[in-house]
Design goal:
two-stranded antiparallel ribbon; 21 helices; 7 strands; about 5% strand; mainly alpha
Length: about 550
Amino acid sequence: HTIRNKQRNLLSKLIVKMKSINISLGKMTEKTKMAGVMSWTEGMSTETDDGVPVAGERATMSTLPREQFMTRFRYASSESLRNAYVTNHPLHVSHLSGVITSTLCEDVFTLVNTQWNVLHEYLEASKMLGTDLGNSVLFDGLLSLFWNLRELHVEYRDTFLIDLERSCATANDFYRMMETTEEFWATLEQTYASLGGSGASVIHLKDQVNDLVALYTSDAVYAAQRAHTFVVREINQSSIPSQLFSRDWEDVFTSNEVVLSIIKTMEDYLYDFHNFLCNDLLYRKVVDSLIRAMVCFYITSLVRTADQVRRRNQLKKKQTGFANPFRSLTRMMYDLELFRSYFENLTKELPSLKPVVEEEMSVLVLVHECLGVAVTNTGDETSVEEFVIVMHKHTGGNMEVTRHFMGDLWFLAAPPTERNEIYEIVALMQSELQMISLHMDAAATPKNDRDPLKGTKLTETLHDLYEERILQSHFSVCAPCVHVVKKVQKKGVRKSLTPEKIPLKLQVPHISLHHRSGNSDQVYRNLQEKLGEVLKLHHLNFVKKQRQGPKIHFSLSTKPV
């Protein structure tokens, strides 16, 4: 607190002293950068309105050319705000409420007010305040200030999301920055009557302010939601993933101890979230994400169990999916009851989460019912098709994901002689499922510019789980191709590159495909037909290079996105 008070006192003194500082050209000192005050060295010449140089004197605000002032103003505002983002922001926990914040909001908007004071002083000193020329300078200066706020915020916003406490503090800081932006704009409207007009410049400036407010709000929500990843990380680092759907889960943990451990972990973290976050909106968003994440985690554990059993079978260590499918269904039923009971208790405090709980629990119930059909085999082919259609919608309309996921459910629960029947049913429904996929693609909403919250959407979770298996199934004639596709993806899409900077064509060393048939044309056509849709999903394309007997040489490249 002492250090913070000293910093604020120093900034206040600099702001007051700014009124008596004459502007001269030169380098800015470090203190001036941090305070956002523009200073220029002595002895540099400037020009008056009639072009006569004023040498050896300190140029005042009134004699500084408008273009030169605006250039210096834009540079000073950008550099000072950048320093505010890159500096260390200590965390502060309120002893009364437990809310955790940092000094980011205060540091940024202290400099914003300083830059505004510089702009206002220039308009007053040059006697342009209230004139058309002065309004033009005002709009230009404020527009550059809000633009710098947006650009620097987008550049540095993800650097704060490093741990749970910092993510919660960042969510609170961004929310307070939204409120401070609205207050700052209200002050500007009271100070300048020209901002209450309806001209094109005013409308454009208001749009910039509204966009900035919306950005701060969405990023505050994103930071709060992203805090759930640290909860999932702790669960993944515990013994829970190895116990869930294991033999002990079936036979030993008869009181559903594994799911109770998950719920206990959620309770502990939700208590911290309730204290750390500054309002109910952010708390509700993190609870929303955590509920979705737990459902995805439960299904992910189920899929990984099927994958582990399948790998053991490949090593000739034969093992059935569930040792006792009926007992596993019962255990899963009680797991779902515990989840539902806990989630519904949360909705008593947060009623708006009821649709989320119903939606997520319906997915778990659907998976449980599919396993039940696989175990009992009482449903006819028509009822199985209905389950496939509903599950296809939950996989995002991805044919391959639907086929693999339904196959895993049957692999775990169905009798060994009936496990492959589900693949035949899905294959016969291909045209119907493709129509559903087309309708889903047409109704899809555009994605946000932020990285998606991993582990909260079932469609993306299942796609990540089955991505390698899908590639392997299509590249069965050439296993090294999977490695090459991964290599192209890794090279072609990097966080440091924006889409416009990604090369339009990223060539990869050629690959040779060996096949038994002498008809290389037919092999190539079959390969192209199988790979087309898969590569399209990854923005990849393969180019035929050469055919030599039983070999096909081709290269993979990225398509323009």
